[in-house]
Amino acid sequence: MSTPIIEVRGVSKSFGGVLANREVSLSVAEGSITGLIGPNGSGKTTLFNSIVGQHPIDSGSIRFEGREISRLNVQKIARLGMLRTFQQTRIFSKMNCVDNLLISVPHRDGEWRDMFRPYQHALREKAERLLEFVGLYSKRRLIAGTLSFGQQKLLEFAMALMNEPKVLLLDEPTAGINPTLINGLIDRLKRANREFRITLFVIEHNMRVIMNLAQHIYCLSHGEMLAEGPPEAIQNDRRVVDAYLGAH
Amino acid sequence: MTRRSLLLHCAILAAAVATPFLFPGHTVQMAVLWMMILFAMTWDTLGGQMGYNSLGNILFFGFGMYVCAVTQIGVVYDVAKYTAATGAIKVDFTNKQYFEGLALGVVFAALACTVVATILSRILFGLRGPYFAIGTLGSAIAAAELTAAWSYVGAGSGIAMPVFPGGPGDRERFFYFMFLVATILCYLFLRWLYGTRFGLAINAIRDDEDKAEALGLHTMRYKTVAWCSSAFFLGIAGALFGNMNGFIDPLEVAYPTLTFGIFMVAMALLGGKGTLWGPILGAVLFYTIQQITWTYLLGWQYIALGVLIIVNVVYFQQGIMGWLKDRKPQWFGVRVEPLPGSAARDGSS
Fold this sequence. Notes:
The complex is a heterodimer.
Chain A: E1 4-15, E2 18-29, E3 33-37, H1 44-52, E4 59-64, E5 67-68, H2 74-80, E6 82-84, H3 97-102, H4 121-133, H5 149-162, E7 167-171, H6 179-195, E8 199-203, H7 207-213, E9 216-221, E10 224-229, H8 231-235, H9 238-245
Parallel strand pairs in A: 3-8, 3-9, 6-7, 7-8
Antiparallel strand pairs in A: 1-2, 1-4, 4-5, 9-10
Chain B: H1 3-22, H2 27-50, H3 58-74, H4 79-84, H5 95-124, H6 130-148, E1 159-160, H7 170-195, H8 197-207, H9 209-214, H10 219-245, E2 247-248, H11 250-254, H12 260-271, H13 278-296, H14 301-315, H15 319-327
């Protein structure tokens, strides 16, 4: 296993009396595709929110490229190169697809005067290339809000790629997507990982997808880390099967 | 810019320049029309393009007016003594003093409003939706009350502005052209601004601010600059209006929250918020209707305007430009472009 790009150590987070994450630890290797599974309500999205700085954590440490980030806000973490997509797809619904991509350019070293620059031709070309990559090229001038849910998911994925992140956290990338298109999406995720060298950390409910995609999988249950390992080991892990079938 | 659009701009400019000479009796009304257009455009930067509905933009109008007045008087006289006399002191401004004071006053008004907008941004942009609207409304009302209680600037009795040097009709014509220039500059500035990255960024904040943050946008920076640009032009408008009016007071002239303050919102909504031309069309239409009701429905004019606003927000929320966008999306560049060979690869669900 190569060096970890994300290191989560003993993270706890509670909402009122509900303990959503208890002493969760995991690490995501640079360049890998890592999966996060668990039954509904097991704290997967809470953990994602903690990692990207959506809310402060109660205790523990989160490191990104060796740097402690648990006290940084969402924007700063995004500018460091760690991006997330949302479970309930979020795009800029009144803007067209190209504009959705243009606004997603990296804001890492954005200076004050950059706000007032026009978009160079090269960026527009890149936006169109990425729209072609996800198969939305012919719809590039449409208002994003008029696309179907599945297309919006693909658009959100393209927006994430436009941002050139080092790590991309995907919250259920295949939920709501037509089963016949899921294979195409898995292929694109793998290509993003391989060609754009983006580390992927994926929450997924579809077992076929995650077993096919990830090299290493973590399983959460009731806010605690239940098991981890390569896909085959997780598939045959008694505790994981019990958690999903509701043995406890 | 296409040939047709260039011709249209030139025609409007020619008409605008000719107006005070063709209709000398209506110069002030037409000057206020330009101010209304400026109001609607600057409100739309936040309310339409960025999705932050401010009900307190009138604050910058009033603040600019007072900053300009104090500067104009301050360059030749003691402001406290001048205001304490409530117009009884006759101070003769030479032409040079008047115009230098005015120029300095307009610049100070614009800059001071920008500073105030920066400070208010820090405080109020933590609020979203209706809370932001109420927060800004509260700020404007508080500003009016504070001004009304501050005797240095004349408190509730206001300030009699320095008298414009020149013959009858000169003052109106002078301020008409000042408003025309201010509004054109505002239009050109916004036209340029909405074409840069800034324009897309504030649209993104309007559509989904959390997503914009998640992508790493410096949202606070954009919001602050957007409000500062509105405040800058509103400060200039306030400075000019105070002088054209000849007399300023806190509640009726400087901070008319219920008239100008609401009109800005109503005009942008009527024309179609979030577009460059919507607020302009809305301002012209609204102001025309307002003038007609003031002439023919006197006594009922606010009821007529109220009905217009209600009909607008209940049955015609998208406004004129929004309605056009729905009807003729191809005019606004919305279209599906099939690409040979790629259609089969298009993802859909």
